[in-house]
Amino acid sequence: MRIPGILLLLALCALVLPAHAMGKRQAQALGQAQEAFAAAVRWSDYEAALQLVDPEWLAAHPVSGLELERYRQLQVTRYREGTSSVLADGTVAREIEVGAVNRHTQAERTVRWRELWRWDAQARRWWQVSGLPDFWDGH
Fold this sequence. Notes:
Number of domains: 1
Low-confidence stretches: 5-20
Strand order of the largest sheet: 1-2-3-4
Radius of gyration: 17 Å
Structural class: alpha+beta
Shape: globular
CATH class: Alpha Beta
Number of strands: 4
Oligomer: single chain
Keywords: Signal
Protein name: DUF4440 domain-containing protein
CATH architecture: Roll
Largest sheet: 4 strands, antiparallel
């Protein structure tokens, strides 16, 4: 009976240690950045969401005016945050489910998506490095 208790304790430590190793200020900054990004997407304010995306990522994956117009046709109906994990390189991954309705056709779409966040030690801030959700699945 002691082994399951030990396994539970080890599992809890695995969840708590990465956040503790991150440091309180860094963890708070991550929470604030994630909340700001989530709020921007929830309100369909994609320009504000893009302000939280890593400039290096945006340079490699620019968002065109046409793409922004496609996003403006959508009204986000839900943004559910799932599990988070710290990857080996320190990047934080968070599972997300986003629902949106096309304002013109009233067709609803649901996307499961993985947000990735990287700590920028020089800027002392978190950057989102996975861009905007792809409601069109590459189409």
